[in-house]
Amino acid sequence: MIADNDSAPQLHKNEGIKTRSQYLRGTILESLADTSTGAIAPDDQQLSKFHGIYQQDDRDVRAQRRKHKLDKAYSFLARICLPGGVCTPEQWQVVDELANFNAFKTIKLTTRQAFQLHGILKGNLKDVIQSCNEVAMTTLAACGDVNRNVMCNPNPLASEVHAEVQEITAQIDAHLKPQTPAFSEIWLDGKPINLGVEQAKERSKDCGGDAVEPLYGPTYLPRKFKIAVAIPPYNDVDVFAHCLGFIAIVEDGKLIGFNVTVGGGMGMTHGNEKTFPRLADVIAFCSPEQVVPVAEKIVAIQRDHGNRVDRANARFKYTVERIGPDGIRAELEQRLGYALEDPKDYKFTSTGDRYGWNEGIDGKWNLGLFIEGGRIVDLEDKPLKAGMLEISNVHKGDFRLTANQNLIIAGVAPEDREEIDALVEKYQLDAYKNASGMRRSQIACVALPTCGLALAESERYLPNLVSDLEVILEEAGLQEDEIIIRSTGCPNGCGRPYLGEIGLVGKVPGKYNLYLGAGFDGERLNKLYRNSITHEQIIDELKPILLDYAKEREKGERFGDFTIRKGYVKATPTGNQFHADVAC
Ligand code: SRM
Ligand code: SF4
Prior knowledge:
Blueprint: H1 13-20, H2 28-33, H3 42-47, E1 53-57, H4 62-67, E2 74-80, E3 86-87, H5 89-100, E4 107-109, E5 115-120, H6 125-134, E6 151-152, H7 162-175, H8 182-187, E7 227-230, E8 244-251, E9 254-262, E10 281-286, H9 291-305, H10 316-323, H11 325-336, E11 356-359, E12 365-369, E13 375-376, E14 378-379, E15 382-383, H12 384-394, E16 398-401, E17 407-412, H13 417-426, H14 437-440, E18 442-444, H15 462-476, E19 485-488, E20 502-508, E21 511-516, E22 527-533, H16 535-552, H17 559-565
Helix pairs in contact: 5-12, 7-9, 9-11, 12-13, 15-16
Bound molecules: siroheme and iron/sulfur cluster (SF4).
């Protein structure tokens, strides 16, 4: 057993909120009923996250409202889980309709294969959640100190084992959902939660929770928990950025099991050296049948050993850092009651999406669309939302949300391709055809105006930066090169910027830290290159490096690898943990 030597320091205040909440009830019902404000009570703001709801306000109008002595323009964000990013046309239509009733009238595809609806008024939250439940989608555990939406390689063409791996992904997701009746009581008038798959009724006896929450117990986890499943050679879920990961091992076309990874995570705080991005360690191999028990025990290890005093240091990556990957494996095997095999060989080649038509092994076709910023919206010249709705009316397969905020129209019969192509073109959903390689390889987190933690713009900034960089790319002949560029409005890392070959992290309005040198395969973090620089300085810094890359790169050499070989930044020995604020 792992010995924790903490001498009972004071727990973080959120632990008290969870303990007093009676399994996530708190006073959410009372808060919803209070028509004197658009907000909910402070403790409920923490608890509602477990229900997939964040209280926000429109930051674009904050100052103006303050000037006029008005309350903030409160509204809510609902995050809707889609394990592995799989979404039926019927589900799409429901999300589309719900988006019409929120302030922004947009659907946001997130970096973790989920939907987000912003700008929902308090009085509409229940309708949103009930409508989702009717078509087997839930916001439960989309956020909060629990396991979140489990991710899976989204591309059904990618391998013969994809359907099997997707099924395992859905099982992990359902098994780790909280069991509290509070969600159904508050939002569903007591009706059962509809996950579309059987939710785990029983958990192993030694799970360590209690009768209401067999796995989580009354205080849930110390912090959020994230799982991804990857099928090599595509690391398009960024498996090493996750608390727990499973890498599918396929032999002779058959799934023989998964390598288990632990301890990844992106978030850090500027200037706090105790916080840092970390890539996961590969610790063991398990059979397909062992995946769910392994996930359950790892979550239980974090429940028991995660830091409940300092939330900035409470993610599982810090538990792994403290106990060590070997210690985690030993504890895992002890809880499982059997030993696991050592990890097997695997090789990743890329983290990006594949665009355009790709044939699947079942003879059906999959169309990868580039959706800038993951934002599905009707603009005057680009009616993307209307287009997707029309496609959902005729499409007989399903949709796959990717971890790069893009979308796949999946499972199209050869004879239906023409019709889909015509709609994609009509509604300008075909940006993948003409966008530069860098634009197609971008991720930008939401940031302003909705994110309460944003220090700078991101989704509204990165496309403009890329436009300016495209002038240099053209001069250098690099228009088609996939150079991974990722930005976030703060160091929390929602767009996984520390895995960008070029990473930008908001410092203050209009200024960013510039990072270089991540691995194209998602197996090496980048390094801080310049601190707190403006748009013009970013261009000035990147221009000579991009021109140098065009002239001096070796055959097949990726931009991130080049910046290290040429000494712009130094790789850490393992490519793993680093203190992101320390420039080399
Ligand atoms: Fe995130 C918080 C948006 C993926 C690390 N994230 C937030 C909040 C909820 C802000 C808040 O707490 O008030 C953001 C809502 C903004 C808005 O208005 O929509 C937010 N995170 C997002 C999304 C929507 C970004 C996007 O543009 O797609 C992603 C939703 C994923 C999903 O569907 O569940 C999103 N967030 C991530 C990722 C990427 C990932 O998981 O692969 C990370 C880094 C990986 C990790 O967790 O280590 C991430 N978000 C954070 C953190 C930092 C956690 C930490 O370890 O310190 C926060 C802040 C926190 O938890 O205190 C945060
Ligand atoms: Fe908000 Fe920061 Fe996440 Fe961007 S990285 S969405 S600014 S919390």
